[in-house]
Amino acid sequence: MLKFILTFAALAGFLASLPANATTITFSTALPAGHQGESVTVGGVTASGWDVSKTNNAVWSLDGVILNNRQEGPDDVGLGVCLASNCPTTGNGDINEIDNDGTSTFEVIRLDFGAPTFVDSIGLSSLDSGTKDGFAIFGGNNAQPTLSSLTAIAQGTNSTVGSTNPVITIDQADRYFFVTSLKRGTSDSGSDFLLESVTTAPEPYTAAMLGLGLLAIGAALRLRIANNRNEESK
Fold first, then answer.
1. For residues 95 and 117, what is the distance between their CA atoms, to the nearest angstrom?
2. pLDDT tens for residues 136-176?
3. In this predicted model, what pLDDT tens digit does every residue of 71-99 receive, in sequence order?
4. How far apart are CA 140 and CA 135, in angstroms?
5. Residue 103: what are its φ and ψ, rounded to 5°?
6. 45-53 and 167-181: which strand pairing?
7. Measured between alpha carbons, how far is residue 227 from residues 137, 220, 231 in Å?
8. Angle subtended by helix axes 2-17 and 204-233, to nearest 10
9. Closest Cα to residue 112, out of 139, 81, 135?
């Protein structure tokens, strides 16, 4: 009996050690360049662009807001947010990137996975160099949270991440993830950057729980067989 349990325990440990299969969605290449409308769905993930009030982070607006896929070069690709009334098709500059250059609002790209999903990392592009205003990433299961009440999963500047195309480690499961600028209470055009990709993977506990489940089933079956044999021998 002990040998049987140890065998299943070893199997559980082996399953837990297997690498999780990751899936990367690269928005910059999966979508055509230019305007995408208010939202776009790629690989089951819906990205949408929003303006959020600087004075009341609970106020979200879609009024005239669209996503734009910029493809200006290897360091300047991905989704940004702008107004349909003045958004260039591609072009450069901050008007079609994620920024907080407005007087009353800052921009957010919301990723909706439809259900809590383990996000391994999020890739950014075109983050301004140096110590200028940077990025902040939040997660949660509320579609329009008060962002000022949340704690950022990750945040920083190009200086802290050391790359114009950083891949930001997330390692968290939520339905929604919010990609926005670091300083959201003041107007600062130095926050410009793009959302390039998102990588998801099964939660690291899934394989371990599967192994433990097999262990429990195996032990129960072994015990049942032993009880049956005891009954037959009486």
1. 31
2. 999 999 999 999 999 999 999 988 998 889 999 999 999 99
3. 888 889 999 999 999 888 877 667 889 98
4. 17
5. -80, -30
6. unpaired
7. 55, 11, 6
8. 160
9. 139
